[in-house]
Amino acid sequence: MSQDVWIVGMAMTKFMRYPDKDIVDLGSEAALGALADADVTIDDVDVLAVGSRYDTAGIGQRLQKQIGQTGIPVYNVVNACATGATAVRVALMAIRSGEADIALAIGVEQMGKQGLLATSEPLDHEAPYQPAGRYGALGSVEGLLGTGLMPGTFAHAGTEYALRHDGVGL
Amino acid sequence: MNLATQERAVPLVDYLELGDPPTLHANRCLACGARFFDRRNACAACGKTDFERVALARRGAVRSFTVVHRATPDVRVPYVSVVVELDDGKFVKANLVGVKPDAATVPPGLRVELTTWGIGTDPEGTKAVTFGFRPLPNGDVEDSAA
Hints:
Radius of gyration of chain B: 16 Å
Oligomer: heterodimer
Helix content of chain B: under 10%
Number of strands of chain A: 3
Strand order of the largest sheet of chain B: 6-7-8-10-9
Largest interface: A-B, 36 and 40 residues
Distance between the termini of chain B: 15 Å
Shape of chain B: globular
Number of helices of chain A: 4
Radius of gyration of chain A: 21 Å
Strand content of chain B: 35-45%
Largest sheet of chain B: 5 strands, mixed, barrel
Largest sheet of chain A: 3 strands, parallel
Order of helices and strands of chain A: HEHEHEH
Structural class of chain A: alpha/beta
């Protein structure tokens, strides 16, 4: 299928902390901004796709309650760093398939102060050790078997890239 | 030293076996040879479903690395996180010990060997043992008992 699909409107909120707004406020602001930018209303939208990595409790439905419950299909997607892009792809595929003429994709996150250091429960020495999971682990291995958190993971990726390219940056 | 016969000890992860010497193991796909540390339903490389447990090389060379300076309070910092390419080609992530935790002291390709140490004891007296890698003594001078 080679039919052209156009981005007819878009909007985003500024990246910052919003102590007085919740995640639905942020998503609504972006959605209403995009609709205004495209000069359409929620009644013109045939499909809604919403991506949020951390808020997975039906964020799409909660957004619909604020921007218009028009009876259209809604898709909630989660796909790590590609979560918002996946929402765009769902909208794209809905249009390409002929299901929708206009689709709305929203990516929204309110991360608070968890940063990128959140980890699982540390190894508990107060109870008998009990192997669990696919690695038969006694507990979190973070900091014991290297690091698997995002800053360290990307640092590893960076040195691996350098090693493959004449040590650039090392 | 055989930890298992001296006292009750359990490995932090089940792919570490506390024999003499302690050795890492992997689940090897019988069809394509891909090796995995975790239990697998099927091979991520070829999709086949039969595996055998195989021992891995105890020596290798540091590939990617990073010095971690910030972590949650239960994690001791700074430490060096490394991915080691074992001499049999398997990659494994762990801590590098026996070096200053400074990026300048971790030359890429540093020759290392497996080492283990205790990280705590539970109320029943069982010791938890983790593994890591340390530089081979005298740089690249290796004995033949790998």
